[in-house]
């Protein structure tokens, strides 16, 4: 069972990716429009989650590689599973000095009836990466495997599963799909929503919930470095390389289920075309940099670049796909 399948995913050099997707694209800065002041770089959640990690990582690489004449100032705007930030950005049409990190909640939250704004109210800039879904527990948790947790949920469906997105959004749908694939009643999942993955992990470490549905990238440091958390599996076709190679896939544990989390960047509606072109070129150059490739690998991300036009088409496809998923789970409100 696959909830999301990326259009193109390659753990390769971004230069090959750029050659495939952007024929004739230059990797040097092109003349024309450039930002004249700092970029407001919005992460629509508290620090520590997937949006925040993407915004801060890309901002850091862009500055380290000296790719922009202006800084990218990451600003956290939490609330409503992203809806608070989207409402603010939607009122700022034409602003070519504002960008925000995005992922499936931009599709899911409006479909679940919790935001009046969806992807059509913004300008796609670029899809950048995909991140594998995972389920996290404390290092001292009694659940040693994914099936230990699933068996416990069969005995007690009210066990709390946290996530850094709104009900009916990314991490809820990810875990509900896993439950469905494992033969559980997905509608009975006791999902506890937090204002970002960092807040959900803090609650898990405090013993307030049993597990967290998350992306592997946002939690890789606490798994591989601090050892505070354990991942019970990843919703990928194959194991990840490097320090996370010991984590088995769901399929290896008998659950035929994959779920990829795409992440990208968008701006306000009606952003001028020359600004969109500038940012597209900027992210291509970033993905070709050594700094990006090191950060990407450390976070277990996979390059999945789409330009503005391709990203817009992809978002339309996602709306149809996730609409069917939410309807099946009884969560579709739109």
From TrEMBL:
Decide whether keyword Nucleotide-binding is in the record: no
Organism, by scientific name, is Zobellella endophytica
Question: Which protein family is named in the record?
Answer: Belongs to the UPF0065 (bug) family.
What CDD domains does the record point to?
A: PBP2_Bug_TTT
Identification of the protein by name: Tricarboxylic transporter
| Pfam families, per database record | TctC
Alphabetic keyword roster? Signal
Any coiled-coil regions, as ranges: none
Q: Mind telling me which PANTHER family this protein's record contains?
A: TRICARBOXYLATE-BINDING PROTEIN, UPF0065 PROTEIN YFLP
Q: Which residues form the signal peptide?
A: 1-28
Tell me the domain of life: Bacteria
């Amino acid at each position: 069972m696959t909830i999301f399948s990326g259009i193109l995913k390659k753990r390769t050099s971004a230069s090959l990716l750029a050659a495939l997707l952007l024929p004739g694209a230059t990797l040097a800065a092109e003349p024309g429009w450039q930002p004249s002041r700092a970029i407001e770089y919005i992460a629509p959640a508290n620090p520590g989650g997937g949006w925040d990690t993407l915004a801060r990582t890309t901002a850091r690489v862009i500055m380290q590689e000296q790719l922009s004449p202006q800084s990218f100032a990451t600003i956290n705007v939490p609330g409503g599973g992203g809806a608070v930030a989207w409402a603010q950005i939607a009122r700022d049409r034409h602003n070519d000095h504002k960008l925000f990190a995005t992922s499936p909640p931009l599709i899911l939250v409006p479909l679940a009836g919790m935001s009046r704004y969806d992807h059509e109210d913004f300008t796609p800039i670029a899809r950048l990466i995909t991140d594998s879904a995972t389920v996290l527990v404390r290092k001292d948790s009694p659940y040693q495997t994914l099936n230990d947790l699933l068996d416990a949920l069969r005995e007690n469906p009210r066990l709390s599963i946290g996530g850094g997105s709104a009900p009916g959004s990314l991490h809820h749908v990810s875990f509900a799909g896993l439950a469905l694939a494992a033969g559980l009643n997905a509608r009975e999942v006791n999902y506890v929503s937090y204002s970002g993955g960092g807040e959900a992990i803090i609650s898990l470490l405090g013993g307030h919930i049993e597990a967290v549905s998350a992306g592997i990238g946002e939690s890789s440091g606490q798994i591989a470095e601090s050892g505070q958390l354990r991942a019970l599996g990843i919703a990928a076709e194959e194991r990840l390389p490097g320090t996370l190679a010991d984590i088995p896939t769901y399929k290896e544990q008998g659950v035929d289920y994959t779920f990829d989390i795409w992440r990208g960047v968008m701006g306000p509606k009606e952003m001028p075309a020359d600004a969109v072109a500038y940012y597209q070129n900027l992210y291509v150059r970033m993905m070709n940099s050594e700094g990006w490739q090191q950060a990407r690998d450390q976070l277990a991300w996979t390059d999945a670049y789409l330009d503005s036009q391709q990203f817009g088409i992809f978002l339309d496809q996602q709306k149809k796909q996730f609409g069917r998923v939410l309807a099946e789970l009884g969560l579709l409100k739109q």
